[in-house]
Amino acid sequence: MLNAATLVPLVSHILHIVGAVILVGGIVYLRTVVAPGAAPGEGDPVDRLYSGRRTAWARWVGIATGLLLATGIINIVLVMKTYPNLSGSYRAMLGAKIMLALVVMFLAAILAGTTPAALELRKAAQRWLTVALISGLAVIILASTLRLFRTPTATGTTARPAPLKQPLLLNKISKHLPKQPALEGTSPPIL
What we know:
The structure is a single chain. With 191 residues, this protein is mainly alpha-helical. The chain contains seven helices and no strands.
């Protein structure tokens, strides 16, 4: 059943994905379709790259960036409240995801802009679109990985998924192996 406690995270998550789709999808299109076909030579590099549609792309970059920043903050707050004991490796991966996402947003915005820096970066548009594309794909991979590491327990802490049970054959074999003394605070090895 949907209530405020479930609706806010759901809507925030959906809008975050929509923002990512717009931004990364647009970068994929620019890098693979538009930039290779942009006519080299004289004239304004903006017109060569965007064929007069720079303003439309810049508007979508702004919308997507706004969605990603707003929903990203909401999502981080919700995750930290729901899972207060996240591991250091989770937090490190989250930090890497945020930094790479900021790189993607920056490159998309600067390449869609009209500042002198934007004009300079557009001279090597394919290179910077490639950096943005690879960073965007890395963000998607990190985001998917991070979702796997959040498992609530009854105490509100996070726990790793239970280890798989050993196949029957390994159980029979392990009965005949010498027992290893268990170290305090560790789990038994998985064969």
